[in-house]
Amino acid sequence: MGRRYGLGGPWVLRGVDLDLRPGTLVRVQGTNGSGKSTLLRLLAGIDAPTEGRVTGRPRTAYVPERFPAALPFSAAGYLTHLGRIQGLGPREAAAGAAEWLERFGAAAHARTPLGELSKGTSQKVAVAQALLAGPELLVLDEAWTGLDTAAREQLDLAVAERVTAGAAVVYVDHDPRRLAGAADAVFSVREGRLEERPAGPPSRGGGPPGRPARIVAVGPPGAPVPRGLPGDPEHSAGEDGSTVLTVADVYSDALLRALLTARPPWHIRQVAVAAATTAARPAESGTTT
């Protein structure tokens, strides 16, 4: 597909051929003005292509680069209204609004008019509206900008939750470390064309690139390991009733938060970067060094 503005205007994008599959995380990068936001608006269905087409439209949610906060709603009222539009019942929409405001640390502003919210709180509402109904395609255009540290971590966790649930997530962010190594595909927009780049291994300050994180946790008596955990961790029985969960390091923070906020919560005994498996030992033995 391609997109240009005006009958004789220059092409912003052309020859774009992209297949988004369920359960994948896709990063889009490029310089300012390269067409990243145009691509995301096309994917979200906000704009229509000038040539070509977008097919197979799933349930889609979109966080724009700029949120129009001057709307005649309170924060909770706006989210409830959007939830109803997205197909939720009145109680489900209201409960979802309260849950996401709580998760992003904005519960105290539930009744505040949108026009009176700070930029950071407005952004929390913008992100919350996209997550309310569990979209099958989540499109994030600089969605982390303006969020505080705790809210950014919650958004990281929410992205991991959506991918684990089988959704496709496409995002743009100015920070090259954002979800570094977690993306299944990375595309660059350059001179109106879309070019695929190597996704690269997970990299994080906690250990060597690509090594998994090992989390030893203890759940409530008799409780199974929660379903849908970020990163789809492997788990095995540990000592003294503990459970050992192993996940790609980039998902470790999200996994920890999911365990700590589970109901009832899990107790974390140890977090470490797992050692690499030695080539001299059989892989099925599970022995590490």
TrEMBL record:
Query: Which residue intervals are annotated with compositional bias (Low complexity) in the record?
Result: 212-231
Q: Which residues form the ABC transporter domain?
A: 2-216
Question: What are the record keywords, sorted?
Answer: ATP-binding, Nucleotide-binding, Transport
Looking up Pfam families in the UniProt record yields:
ABC_tran
The record lists the membrane-crossing segments as none
Region Disordered: what ranges? 192-240
> Which GO molecular-function terms appear in the entry?
ATP binding
PANTHER family recorded for this chain?
ABC TRANSPORTER ATP-BINDING PROTEIN ALBC-RELATED
* Full protein name: ABC transporter ATP-binding protein
- Source species: Streptomyces xantholiticus
